[in-house]
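FORM 7B: Structural annotation worksheet

SECTION A. Query
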Amino acid sequence: MPSVLDSPKCPIHHPPTPPPPFQFFALPPEIRNQIITHVVTEVFPITIKWKGFNRHVKAQPKIYTAPAMTASEQLIHPDEEPSDTEVSLGHSRIALLMTCKQAYREGWKIYYGNNTFDFSFHTFRPFCDEIPARCRNQIRSILFRMPFRYRHETIWQMLARFGRLENLEIQLHAPSTAQHSEWENCRSGAKEIKRLQILTLMRKGYSGEWTAQELSVLEKDQEIQDEINAYLRDRERLGSWDKKSLVVKVDSS
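SECTION B. Predicted structure
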């Protein structure tokens, strides 16, 4: 009588043939695009962090180029330091794109175009200097945390280099530190960003209850925001990029 181990159904001596690997790139392009979009798009802004205290290498955002990417095919890979706040560093979002060149080429525009990138001044300058222009020009949404009372004009000039930027959130410092120049820089800087559609102004330093002076600053922020967004809507409606069409209102108070 034959042993059960000799049976063709025995899982020990005759293991089943494993199924073939899933052929992702055999899917229709439309399905692949939907999957890639779902994988690389983050709900929260992707925070670009920077190892600014490392003196042994050139100070810049961390860039990964594998698998065998050329300089013009680079992806920003944010720093791996933990954060105390609920932010995304984007690590898992680029994993699929780094598996092979085809995945990268099908998804890099989606990664840059669908996500909001969170910058401070110290991460923004090296990002602009190091990232290829074709990647920078895919970014459509930015959250920028302005430094305290310096280099605002330079920052707005750098923001104008983003050719497809549509949504911009600016975080200014606490209302108690507000200056008139902040609003003027917002007015003049926003009109230089050719495709900007929405500007949002916000303040840091909320402690639970605003003073009367702080409330007046927030009201002024809202006034400036509404004025700029009205100009942006008119610019888009008219299809004109005339820099002189933005009326700058000077508050003499």
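SECTION C. Observations
The radius of gyration is 25 Å. The chain is about 35% helix and 10% strand.

SECTION D. Sign-off
Analyst initials: ____
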